[in-house]
Design goal:
Helix content is about 40%, strand content about 15%. The chain is α+β, with helices and mostly antiparallel strands and about 150 residues long. A hairpin with a 4-residue loop joins β2 and β3. The protein folds into 2 domains: about 45 residues; about 80 residues, no CATH class. Strands 1-2-3-4 form a 4-stranded antiparallel sheet, covered by helices on one side. The longest helix has about 40 residues.
Length: about 150
């Protein structure tokens, strides 16, 4: 850069310094007011903030896979994938992945929010297990099976 060009840039900055500083001051003030307003809303009703985040997450995942619409999922975040490595569903899980659990529909979705991908989908069986096997009774010295109730 030659001396003449440097002088032009330097003169322009000096001439407009007050305007640039005023613009930065106004912009930062507006940003601070907006953040303060949002923070005060979160403090007043934290459940609403959680609900908004949940709705955003469901909308993003629903663009990738059909989700049940008749229930609200339970959402969990993978915080330590090493604890889950022995479970096949979490084999590809990384820290920060979301798990959407639809108990009534029996569906579980592992979602990668960083790459916006559904990583895994599995069926979920809660409360549909068979009754435990009968325990033998040893009161007379012989094992007698306890009858299992029949399911309809």
């Amino acid at each position: 850069m030659n001396k003449e060009a440097f002088d032009k840039v330097s003169n322009f900055i000096r001439a407009n310094l007050i305007g640039v500083l005023a613009f930065l001051l106004i912009f930062s003030s507006i940003a601070n007011i907006a953040f303060y307003h949002k923070l005060s809303n979160i403090k007043e009703d934290p459940q609403q903030a959680v609900q908004e985040q949940t709705e955003k997450l469901i909308k993003r995942v629903a663009k990738l896979i059909n989700l049940p619409t008749d229930e609200q999922p339970t959402i969990a975040t993978v915080s330590d994938p090493s604890l889950l490595k022995d479970q096949p569903f979490f084999a590809k899980a990384k820290k920060g992945f979301k798990v959407l659990i639809y108990a009534n529909a029996g569906k579980t979705v592992l979602y990668d929010p960083f790459d916006n991908k559904v990583v895994e989908v599995a069926s979920l069986n809660i409360g549909n297990q068979e009754p435990p096997p009968p325990t033998p009774s040893t009161s007379s010295g012989q094992a007698t099976p306890t009858p299992t109730p029949k399911r309809k």
